[in-house]
Amino acid sequence: MKAPLLVLALLVSSACQGSESHRVVETPTVESYQSNYTGPKSALTVGKFNNTSPYLQGIFSDGVDRLGNQARTILKTHLTQTSRFDLYDRENMSVLEQEGAITGKGTQLEGADIVVTGQVTEFGRRNTGDKQLFGILGRGKKQIAYSKVSVLLVDARTSRIICSVQGAGEFSLSDREVIGFGSSSGYDSTLNGKVLNLAITDAVNKLVRAMDAQQIDLGGDAK
Question: Can you list the pairs that 26-31 forms with residues at least 24 positions away whose Cβ atoms lie under 8 Å?
Answer without folding.
Answer: 28/197, 28/198, 28/201, 29/78, 29/81, 29/201, 30/78, 30/81, 30/82, 30/201, 30/204, 30/205, 30/208, 31/205, 31/208, 31/209
